[in-house]
Specification:
Helix content is 47%, strand content 8%. With 320 residues, it is mostly helical. It folds into three domains: 70 residues, Dna Ligase, domain 1; 70 residues, Dna Ligase, domain 1 (2-Layer Sandwich); 99 residues, no CATH class. The strands form three sheets. A two-stranded antiparallel ribbon has the order 1-2. A two-stranded antiparallel sheet has the order 3-4. Helix 10 crosses helix 12.
Length: 320
């Protein structure tokens, strides 16, 4: 029996070859670049278009071809599917894997919980963030917050490791504004400018620990202002000298500074710390009391006196 050998049709051969070539091209362009940077983070900003993103990833050696990446993203739903944020890439990924993560918001990055204590100064806040965030620039933050002492709200924040100074500043000031907005009626009823309130709150923050004592101390200090008596608080000296201690000497009481509340009546020019919400609330809801003097004993318990003689008695009784 004679068998007839069938030759492949030219059209089928061309199609097979073309398909093979396309598969090879897809595979080659899909592979991660040999110089794909490990342990790297890429930030995609809100509003970034697909073309700009593709160029960013190509320039960062995360993909081989910007055109091919745009094609793959289109298969995943296109530009509207791109989710902004910080993306962490531990190991090389193919273009398809990378596109899938970016269109599904798989950041693979853990946010850091950073607590800013109440009653610390802006420069101390900057040091805390600099120790936690790799791209946080201390000088940039201090410049942004150059006139915001007292208005950076102390709280526990969640930030990604790549967060920069501008975002930290915006987040803290926004948080402060929200807290003030939530208490605007009480603030308005109290009847003093916000600057006066925050300045007094920054002093109250350092002068007393418990909420009840803060309210009592606020009552004492507002009363001193009312009768034109100097505040005579020691905590402003740490602001004057740029230190964290409040140990002072008799010579300090005469130092020429607008923040020296022994020689200047009324409030200092501005806040000396960044107060917490309790101190702010205590300042605008002070406890009405007859006292003009107070001190804290070695256990942190507050003792109040109506006059200076009573204050001296408390000094001998609780501090000696």
């Amino acid at each position: 029996m004679n068998y007839k050998i069938l030759k492949p049709k030219p059209a089928l051969t061309i199609f097979s070859c073309a398909l093979t070539i396309l598969i090879l091209i897809y595979a080659i362009l899909n592979w991660a670049p040999s110089n794909f940077p490990r342990e790297t983070t890429i930030r995609i900003k809100n509003g970034t278009n697909l073309n700009s993103l593709s160029i960013l990833l190509k320039n960062s050696s995360l993909i081989r071809s910007a055109t091919f990446f745009k094609f793959v993203v289109t298969l995943n739903g296109g530009q509207k599917k791109i989710i902004a944020g910080d993306y962490f890439f531990r190991t090389p990924l193919s273009a398809a894997e990378l596109a899938s993560r970016i269109t599904k918001g798989k950041f693979a990055i853990t946010s850091l919980k950073i607590t800013i204590p109440e009653g610390i100064r802006t420069k101390e806040i900057a040091k805390i963030f600099a120790s936690k965030l790799k791209e946080f620039n201390v000088n940039e933050f201090l410049w942004l917050a150059r006139d915001k002492e007292g208005y950076l709200f102390p709280d526990t924040y969640l930030f990604y490791p790549q967060t920069r100074a501008q975002e930290v500043y915006d987040t803290m000031t926004d948080n402060f504004n929200k807290k003030i907005e939530a208490n605007k009626d009480t603030i308005a009823k109290f009847g003093r400018p916000l600057k006066d309130i925050i300045t007094m709150a920054s002093i109250v923050e350092k002068e007393a620990n418990t909420f009840e004592d803060k309210k009592m101390v606020a009552g004492v200090l507002w009363r001193r202002i009312k009768i034109d008596m100097p505040l005579q608080v020691d905590v402003t000296f740490s602001f004057i000298y740029g230190t964290t201690t409040t140990k002072i000497y008799l010579s300090d009481l005469k130092v020429a500074s607008p923040y020296n509340t022994y020689i200047n009546k009324g409030l200092p020019p501005g806040p000396i710390t960044n107060p917490g919400l309790n101190s702010i609330i205590a300042t605008i809801t002070p406890t009405d009391n007859p006292y003009l003097f107070y001190l804290s004993d070695k256990s942190g318990i507050m003792h109040y006196a109506i006059n200076h003689d009573g204050h001296l008695v408390n000094k001998r009784k609780y501090l000696q």
